[in-house]
Amino acid sequence: MHMAIKPESLTVRILAQADADELARIESFVDASPLGTAFHRPAWVLSVGKGCGHEWRYLLAEDHKGQLQGILPLNLIHSPLFGRALVSSGFAVGGGILSDNDQAIQLLANEAWRFAESNSFPTVELRGGPVPDGQWQCKQDVYAGFVTELADDADSQLLAVPRKQRAEIRKGLKNDLTVRIGTTQEDRADHYAVYAESVRNLGTPVFPKALFDEVLDAFGEDADILTVLSDDVPVASVLSLYHHQTVMPYWGGGTWDARRFRANDIMYYELMNHARKRGCTSFDFGRSKYGTGAFSFKKNWGFEPQPLSYATRTADGEDARDVNPTSPKYRMQVALWQRLPLPIANRVGPLIAKGLG
After folding, report:
1. Label partner for 214 (CA 20 to 30 A): which of 44, 45, 60, 225?
2. 11-140+310-321 architecture in CATH?
3. Model's pTM, two decimal places?
4. pLDDT tens per residue across span 184-238
């Protein structure tokens, strides 16, 4: 005769205040999990709140001993243009429920939806992690992630890149480009100027500079900026995050001159070398939408795309948010934004972009 094992009783509570002890517990939980990401960390979740003016919450699943069995970070995104949504995590390509406990996963999802309903959020977006049961829609055909192992040295790294892309890097190496790495005010100012010009050229509004500053301050040694210069003029720059021996170039871009100098190619190649020296073993090129130029660019580097799972739940009768700039509904707005003078785009852009989440 077999006795039925009663499922462990779990409870979920909401953390809404930046209690140092609680945040340290969460940090340790994320660090101990092989599926934990930079976007689960309090450093990210709270930086989004401070940099863009959004509230945050952590949903915590605990056992009867008070031990964490799962977490769900949430940024409360509100925008007059794009509506309201609970997002895990805001302004991130990752996040979602972090747990290997099936009961915790479902309880966290249920609590997120209960919170959304009681606070007038028509949509919950989970960017990665397990997909809960019930009325959650899962999409795996929109975005792909790109991660590969770093080579043992700079020469091997160059040879690991497919021939056609390797030729572009070699051309860039012949240009008289210099590389600067740091988090000083000069690094931050140069990065923001290059990034803002880059996204304007793509037709999308730039995030508030405060978001970048908050992330850099909160992550400390786990974030930096690599800038490529030509004759002391910044032409390409990237802000990267470091987590679990993986580097993720997150906010990067180049000026119009970057293509001519192959500065973007040099930027990513030099970042690979820099990350290796820091002790990293893998390179996370982030997500790209299938069929885009960025998707092709990453494949050209020899990265194999892996489908990303995104789960959403939307209230009955409501449409899910669409904040993707490649969406056909934004074609005219993108074309208009590309023609805006940079000072105007940089003034208006953050007011719009902080509502994207």
Report:
1. 60
2. 3-Layer(aba) Sandwich (3.40)
3. 0.91
4. 999 999 999 999 999 888 888 889 999 999 999 999 999 999 999 999 999 999 9
